[in-house]
Amino acid sequence: MANQVVSHPARRQFALSGLALGAATIASRGALAQQPNAAPAGPARASGPIVLHGVSPRLTVHALDTFHGAAATGLRIDFSRLEGGSYKLLRSTVMNANGRSDDPLLIGESYQAGDYELLLHVDDYFAGRKAVLPVPPFLTKLPVRIRVANVAERIHLPIQFGPWSYTYSRGS
Predict the structure, then answer these.
(1) pLDDT (tens digit per residue) in 67-86
(2) 48 C-beta neighbours (distance < 10 Å), count
(3) pLDDT confidence tier of residue 28, bands split at 50, 70 and 90
(4) 3-state SS string for 131-156
């Protein structure tokens, strides 16, 4: 039996369509690059949102509840500074409707270099939201520890949390 070539018109059409689509994509990118006022490819390289230009150095926080997919309205955070080997409470704050504190945690004279802790009361938060979770809860009080090294920089802490995990990062 000799090698037989079996023709599959649908496969051939699919392959040709894929090649045509790829070629069209490459051609359109090349055309964009030729335009003098074309937007640059890739992420924007701005120093920060325009609304932050001229804002004094400060420490702010934004808490997001990943379990409910919403801002963490009503979450209590205890904010402390490391002094003499232990954390001294500076203030407690409750996140507003946007998941932010009404005022920056540090600003002006209070914005000093040092080690700080934000203690998130997620057990109380989820209990207040009447979330159906295992008892006892997996996470209770979440410590977020940071260091302010340069008081000329603005620090924003976006914190995402759920009943089983949390993440945070330094925003600008």
Answers:
(1) 999 999 999 999 999 999 99
(2) 12
(3) low
(4) CCCCCCCCCCEEEEEEEECCCCCCEE
Question: Closest by alpha carbon to 158, among 40, 59, 29?
Answer: 59
Buried b (16+ CB within 10 A) or exposed e, 73-85: bbbbbbbbbeeee
Euclidean distance between the first and final Cα of the chain, in Å?
71
Least confident of 56-60, 116-120, 128-132, 168-172: 168-172
Task: For tokens 């209990």, name the residue.
Answer: 127
Cα(172)–Cα(170) distance, integer angstroms: 7
**Left if phi > 0, otherwise alpha if psi is -120 to 50, otherwise beta: which for 8?**
beta
DSSP per-residue codes, 40-74: PSSS---SS-GGGTTPPPEEEEEEEETTTTEE-TT
pTM of the model: 0.67
SS3 state of residue 94: strand
pLDDT value of position 37: 54
Please tell me the predicted confidence (pLDDT) of residue 19.
Answer: 60
Per DSSP bridges, beta strands 76-83 and 141-148 are unpaired
